[in-house]
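wait is this the right file?? whatever heres the structure
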């Protein structure tokens, strides 16, 4: 009788098949789960109908000034500190100090990279780019910059 003429199961193949079997069990259908314990007649709860949990969209929720400033801080830290200082009362490497900026100035610079009519810029550079994706965050940015003054 010759050795090696039939199928051989190596240790590596056995490990791979075992891992596949464990993975298949872990990812099985939820109907494969064990039945509830005897005496437990509770039925799985269903999520409430949308009408029972209706809430206004986030933009309609009125935030406290502190919460609004906190949101503004997040937007500022995520989008502005590449040029402006983390402390908006201090000048950054590229951008000026902007604590206390008016809502009109923030809206004009963020949306169109323009200055409001009659405004005298602190710097003559034009490095800033418009960031219209921040339009809904402008009130929060204003609240943060007002609180930072």
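ok assuming it is, sequence goes like this
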């Amino acid at each position: 009788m010759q050795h090696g003429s039939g199928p051989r199961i190596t240790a590596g193949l056995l490990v791979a098949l075992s891992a596949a079997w464990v993975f298949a069990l872990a990812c099985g259908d939820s109907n494969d789960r064990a039945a509830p314990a005897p005496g437990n007649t509770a039925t799985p709860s269903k999520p409430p109908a949308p009408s029972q949990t209706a809430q206004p969209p986030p933009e309609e929720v009125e935030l406290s000034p502190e919460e609004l400033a906190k949101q503004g801080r997040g937007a500022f830290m995520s989008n502005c500190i590449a040029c402006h200082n983390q402390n908006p009362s201090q000048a950054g490497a590229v951008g000026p100090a902007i604590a206390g900026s008016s809502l009109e100035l923030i809206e004009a610079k963020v949306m169109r990279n323009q200055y409001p009519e009659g405004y005298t810029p602190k710097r003559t550079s034009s490095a800033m780019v418009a960031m219209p994706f921040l339009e809904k965050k402008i009130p929060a940015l204003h609240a943060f910059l007002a609180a930072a003054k």
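Residues 21-34 have pLDDT under 50 and may be disordered. so i think its the right one actually
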